[in-house]
């Protein structure tokens, strides 16, 4: 009765193995589960896993297919399928586990889903043997008995035939015995690497990037293959098969290749044959089905990693990225720095740096990158050889291909860069010297001509003349002053550093795969390609030209080693699943571990569990790094723990080591045995320890000695407790002060009711602690308690508490230097007034003026300059204004003049700018705004002049205009009264008290006229320009809104502004409005004006004439009413009998200051008001919901929009002019 068993192995990780002392193979093979599955009545011939859904699918010789599912740790039968004909040759799930394809020997193919539904079936006209899904599940590869491979899509349609380049030239029948397509779920070893392996029974195999790859890698395995399988991340391909020996026996082997098809290792397997192979999910073990046994092979991956300066650096790939992620992990601080680097091929480290070797973008280009412990690049070099072997010392980086060796002396380069960073102008004209330095740092040579070392530039020119070496390089190592290069024949070339002079040759009995020199270069450890470790004595005389002696001591199955950095006789090595420490050739008892050796010093071996780290490379844990003590260190600890100091001292004398003497010294200090401690410190060369013993001897008090010993061992709390028991809190305060633990210093000082100086010092230090961590609020709290105003200023500035800075300005006394610092900080954030106050209080008038200039507060700057007799500010203003004008930044110059209260200059510039824009046909609204702003600057200049002449400018202007106290105003006087231009009623009474004010104001006006007559020349028309463009915009708005009559009224008003507006535009618009309002007489007059304008080109005048002719042929040139423009026509009109056009006539004869700027109408009996800024009238009803003046856009009072009767109207006037 055939049986089907599911075995679950103990999946202990390496950390659990370390804690539980796992078995010799490096992992426990104890069975966690052994379940027999019943259901098949014949032998099972095919089985496949579905790890995505925890399913197992099996098929037997009768064609019965059973799908098993895992539930509560047990396997149960879920689905059964039996086609009742044909035998299943192969079946595979997609990488997602959602589909399964079943291939029968008669050519039938069935594809089903994970839930048991049949998707499709097809009969192929071939005898099938193997199948494989593509990683994305879109294609299926089928192999037939004739050794052909065909591609079909996921619906069963034929696509193409896969070319088998590896079988070209082979004569004879062959068949496909193995096919595996890596799905990329764990990322790829490198971009665009082969993932599809096809293997024939004649031993030929090809690796392809995809099924149509025309650049496949062809390999002759040298065996008769049985199966192929990629590991978990596609970096290793296992090929099982056998070789036939001379006597006809079959030797079963497993060949291992990398993704590039390079052979890695050969594993011999005992037994009668390998029927199947399978990788563990983590890729750490390979299961082999041999006869009735299952063999497990532990894999030791060649990770890209190194260890230096308490930092573990390792490279790995992620499925979502093409680059390698290089992790720099500080094993002490647990800080991680991830760097993404393309195509990393090697990682090496020594001293303070690590070296990354990468492939460049250009073909044949490779890059060596030197990094520090946090992954920051320090230096890099581009080389044009493929570095298959890389090693690093504290000063040299060595990279070698199979024929060429490259040596880079980076240490001197790095130190020179640091030295040159502070030199000014050190790079000029030193190209030749730099080239000589480069030649001294970088050298290359061919292994067949080792005496011919050249700079890379020279070597590159001669590279084409060099031939391939028949004895290629197979390993490289280096020591502080020695470089060793091993060749496949076993010859090892020795070179001295830095000169690279050949100094010796050594001969090995094997082909080395790895070399390692001990700390003094006296012994060389060699691991060959079969894992055999041997040693060479480098100091032996040797025979003939060969020096050294290859010792007979050997150890098998060694995959890692590490020499002690402080003892040339100590070596740690990994042999299978055990770690051994050799003293000379004598091994200590082993320790069960499968960790990689990172370092060996002070009788401790540091090991890293890289297999566990690579399971979660982004989040390594500190317990993945372990330290193993040597036997001598363990024995010494045991002797000291037993209390037998004499035996311990004798043992250390027989096995002298600095670490052992240090251990004895520390034990003696614990016991306060000062004589023994001093002796031990002397033996280990610890001068500070000797001084400590002398200081302890001078104390005399044993309690104080014990406290100081606690301090030495960093048990500070114990030392403080001892001081408390002695009632010596002063010593505890001193201890905490030396340690910088100022929080406890504060607590201890408060306990003693201590002195204010010590407490203030503690508060200052605590404030510094929080400042260093940018906790400014807490720092400010302690600096306030310590009354440290200087640091408090800094904290307030960082907190952006500028009000606090201002308060400090008020507290500080005049002349303190800190005031200048506060002023500079306030100035940096734009608080000009507060900054000026701080500078003035500090006595630095120049800094205050400079602050105003920097922040463009020119009015304040000029005021300060006048007050403190600083004439340079005026010149600086003019210089800056000239600079802005030269750059054509006119508006910035206007803003500058306004801030400096240079109103006339600002107005002139605005008027000029408006005139230029008018010539450029700029938007009228923009031109109007410039004229309004110019007019406002003129008004500001007048107010300033009046205020300077005497009294308040607003009061003076009000008195002059008669609108002060006691002035009576009305919107419209009763019939028979006379109204002046400003809308005042005749007969206004003025109080006698205002006579003096009026006289003073008149004097101010005379002064203004005399002082600014030349300055205001040409600027009084600013309001006229604003009015011109305002009515121009208003007329267009009225026309577009369908108010033709209103537009005509406003357009007729524009004739008064032909010195501002272009007459051609005015009369052309008047003609247009006259046409639309049926005022053809006005339209005709406008055309006459246009035809008479000499500024218009002749062609355009003729066009106007033609247009007029076409208009007036159909319409007589007459208005509906005769437009009389005299005031008498208005007076003789019948009261109450006026029509629409009569009102229009009245509007045309109204004074300029009686025209409503909101509508263009004349201000008559309707309620109206006057803007206090531009002094222009407006009818209240025409304002609507507006709260601003239509002309100058100044804000009107809230009641401005409310209707008022004639008696209630009032005049809202400004302060002056």
Please describe what this structure looks like.
There is one protein chain. The chain is an alpha+beta fold. Among the domains are: 163-299, YVTN repeat-like/Quinoprotein amine dehydrogenase (Methylamine Dehydrogenase, Chain H, 7 Propeller), CATH 2.130.10; 300-383; 631-699, no CATH class; 897-1012, no CATH class; 1022-1118. Helices cover 34% and strands 27% of the residues. The chain is built from 36 helices and 55 strands. The strands form 15 sheets. Strands 46, 47, 48, 49 and 50 form a 5-stranded antiparallel sheet that branches. α20 (832-842) runs antiparallel to α21. It starts with a strand and ends in a 34-residue tail after the last helix. Mean pLDDT is 84; it is low at 16-28, 421-430, 432-440, 950-990, 1124-1145 and 1200-1217. WD repeats lie at residues 37-70. Residues 4-300 form the IFT121/TULP4 N-terminal domain.
Number of contiguous helices: 36
State the CATH architecture of the domain at 163-299. Answer: 7 Propeller
Instruction: Indicate the mean pLDDT.
Output: 84
Q: Percent helix among the residues? A: 25-40%
If you consult CATH, what is the topology of the domain at 163-299?
Methylamine Dehydrogenase, Chain H
- Give unreliable regions as ranges: 16-28, 421-430, 432-440, 950-990, 1124-1145, 1200-1217
Distance N terminus to C terminus?
122 Å
**Main sheet attributes: strand count, strand direction, barrel closure:** 5 strands, antiparallel
Oligomeric state of the chains present here: single chain
Shape: extended
Radius of gyration: 50 Å
CATH H-tier superfamily of the domain at 163-299 = YVTN repeat-like/Quinoprotein amine dehydrogenase
Strand content: 25-35%
- CATH class wording of the domain at 163-299: Mainly Beta
Number of strand segments: 55
